[in-house]
Amino acid sequence: MALNHFDMRWFVFRDKDTVFFPENMVQTLSNYNHQLWYYIGTDSEIYKQNRLFAISYPLSKVVAKVFDSCLERCPHLYGSDDRIYARLAELGIGLTHAPSFHQVPTQSLLTF
After folding, report:
1. By the 8 A CB rule, do 95 and 43 touch?
2. Can you tell which superkingdom this protein's organism belongs to (predicted)?
3. N or C: which end of the chain has fewer CB within 10 A?
C-alpha cells in the first residue's frame, strides 16, 4: 500500500481454492461507488474462513494503516480474511451483502 495506485478501484480477496469469474466480479462491483468505503461479499454458510470479498481502494488504505497493530494485538486470528474482518469491525464497517458472491463446497465440484 506504499504505492499510490490512482486507477485502482477494488481489492478482491480469495483463497487458493476459491473459484470466481472475473467478468461477473467486475459487473457486480460496478454497482458500487468505489470511492466510498465498501466491504462487499457474503457470509459463508459452510466456511468460517476462505471468504471471497472485495474492499474498495480508499478503505484498503485505512485498513493498511491499522493492520500491523492487528497482528500484534490479535495473534489468535488465523488468515488474512479473519484479520481484515476484525479491523473492519473495529472501524464500524459492516459487510455489504452481494448475493453474487457465494461459495460452493469444493467436494460438490468433484461429485458427479
Report:
1. yes
2. Eukaryota
3. C
